[in-house]
Structures are given as C-alpha cells and as structure tokens.
C-alpha cells in the first residue's frame, strides 16, 4: 500500500496555486476547482480543492534535507513564517507557516529519525 495524495481545502484557488508554486512545487493539474502538484523530489503529490467552508485541522509536512537553505530562499520571496527552523524534542527540525487559506504547513528535516526514531516500536 502507498499513500496517493493529500487534498487541502482552499478558499481562493488562484492565490493558493501561486503560493504553492512559489514554494517550489510543480503544478500538474489546473482547473478552477482543483489543482494538483508534484513534489520537486520523489514522486509524491498533493492537491487543492476549492471549498466554500474551508476549515482544516490537518497539518501537511514537506521534507527537505536542506531545510535551512530552503527557508532562507522562501524568506527572500517574502514568505512569512510563524516559526523559523527549530530543533524539536522529537528529533525533527521544523519551520511553520500557513498557506493563504490558513492551512498549517510544516517544512522539516528528520533524516533517519523520520522512520526510525529511537522510540520506534518493533
């Protein structure tokens, strides 16, 4: 089994598409009510769906080995962060931001600890 994609609700498709393209994702499907992106590394995708009542409690994570460089490049594009890259107690380094619809995004690097933290269940 493999995860196909995650779909985020958005209030304004045009603003959302521009935002995710600015983050570096490749637009592969573009309609007025639905957009899908390919991650620049690997084969993962995610999508956006236009929703009138856009409330989402989920958090989407995007991993990048050069997290600090990526965040620095986004800061130069005037992307606003709630939290700059910070080492977490669970051994991940994370930055936090929100898309134009209020969806919470964590940019992170966890390395080996993503799948094999010291507390992994055998």
TrEMBL record:
PROSITE patterns: GLYOXALASE_I_1, VOC. Keywords: Metal-binding. InterPro entries: Glyas_Bleomycin-R_OHBP_Dase (IPR029068), Glyas_Fos-R_dOase_dom (IPR004360), Glyoxalase_1_CS (IPR018146), VOC_core (IPR037523). One of its GO terms (molecular function) is lactoylglutathione lyase activity. Residues 2-110 form the VOC domain. This is VOC domain-containing protein. It comes from Aliiglaciecola lipolytica E3.
